[in-house]
């Protein structure tokens, strides 16, 4: 297998939710390789299992069976403490709703992630400032989320996702809640970050424009990757 394919390797991933007597087979043997520096878009109908897949990729949940390997290291076999460390140091999450803490400023919201991972406050704040400048928010450092526009909040969320230099940013419908123009600005930012930082992104999206710009778009159907809508599988 080439080096590119070996960055993130998902093999035969199965996730079944058990709810009383109901068993919901969401992922049914999903296999997928993600290259370093790739922007991968995942599309699929509502309920197809896209969010479930992102949670498993980021160690927020564990699969029923199958593996998720980052450069050969299977995160599904990590213990709770190791998994916590993996999540905070190696993965950045962006959700549809920003999940920023309203009582904290933009700067604090970004810096907290660094502090949780063990960085001293001053270093975490310096890094947060740099990232917020990077996403064009140098004039909003001390604003709290209610005083920011929707697009600005998602830019803060992106900066927060990047604070620990993650290997991968997992974004679940990051522009699903934004108007077209604001969405495009956030998409521009994602591409800019990929160009400048070589950042790998896995993005679940319903946005055709974003999917079109990605290196590859794959569709989740019946618990598996059905086909590459664009790019190689
Ligand atoms: N914690 C859970 N318990 C039971 N069922 C769940 C849970 N999380 C998701 N599901 C079910 O799994 C299916 C896939 O959900 P999800 O991954 O959120 O889909 P998508 O993000 O593609 O819309 C849905 O039928 C959903 O109801
Ligand atoms: Mg979802």
Please, how many domains? 1
Rg is 17 Å
- Average pLDDT works out at 91
Strand order of the largest sheet: 6-7-8-3-9-10
Distance N to C terminus: 14 Å
What low-confidence regions span 5 or more consecutive residues with pLDDT below 50?
A: 1-5
Structural class: alpha/beta
CATH superfamily: P-loop containing nucleotide triphosphate hydrolases
Describe this protein's structure.
The structure is a single chain. With about 230 residues, this protein is α/β, with parallel strands linked by helices. The chain has a single domain (about 35-65, about 70-230), classed as P-loop containing nucleotide triphosphate hydrolases (Rossmann fold, 3-Layer(aba) Sandwich), CATH 3.40.50. The chain contains seven helices and ten strands. The protein has helices at about 50-55, 80-90, 105-115, 120-135, 150-160, 180-195, 210-215, and strands spanning about 10-20, 20-35, 40-45, 65-70, 75, 90-95, 170, 200-205, 215-220, 225-230. It has a six-stranded mixed sheet, with helices on both faces. It has a four-stranded antiparallel sheet with strand order 2-1-4-5, with helices on one face. A hairpin with a 2-residue loop joins strand 1 (about 10-20) and strand 2 (about 20-35). The chain is globular and about 50 Å long. The protein binds adenosine-5'-diphosphate and magnesium ion (MG). Adenosine-5'-diphosphate binds next to strand 1, strand 2 and helix 1.
């Amino acid at each position: 297998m080439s080096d590119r394919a070996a960055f993130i390797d998902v093999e035969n991933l199965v996730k079944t939710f058990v709810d009383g007597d109901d068993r919901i087979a969401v992922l049914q043997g999903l296999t997928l390789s993600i290259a370093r520096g790739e922007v991968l878009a995942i599309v699929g109908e509502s309920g197809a299992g896209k969010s479930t897949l992102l949670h498993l990729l980021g160690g927020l949940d564990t699969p029923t069976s199958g593996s998720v390997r980052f450069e050969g290291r299977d995160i599904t076999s990590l213990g709770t403490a190791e998994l916590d460390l993996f999540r905070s140091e190696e993965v950045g999450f962006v959700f549809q709703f920003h999940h920023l803490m309203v009582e904290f400023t933009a700067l604090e919201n970004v810096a907290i992630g660094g502090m949780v991972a063990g960085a001293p406050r001053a270093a975490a704040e310096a890094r947060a400032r740099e990232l917020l400048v990077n996403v064009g928010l140098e004039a909003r450092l001390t604003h709290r989320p209610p005083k920011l526009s929707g697009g600005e909040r998602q830019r803060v969320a992106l900066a927060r996702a990047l604070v620990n230099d993650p290997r991968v940013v997992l974004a679940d419908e990051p522009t699903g809640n934004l108007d077209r123009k604001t969405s495009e600005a956030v998409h521009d930012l994602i591409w800019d970050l990929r160009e400048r930082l070589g950042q790998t992104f896995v993005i679940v999206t319903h946005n055709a424009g974003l999917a079109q710009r990605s290196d590859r778009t794959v569709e989740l159907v019946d618990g598996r990757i059905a086909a590459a809508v664009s790019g190689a599988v």
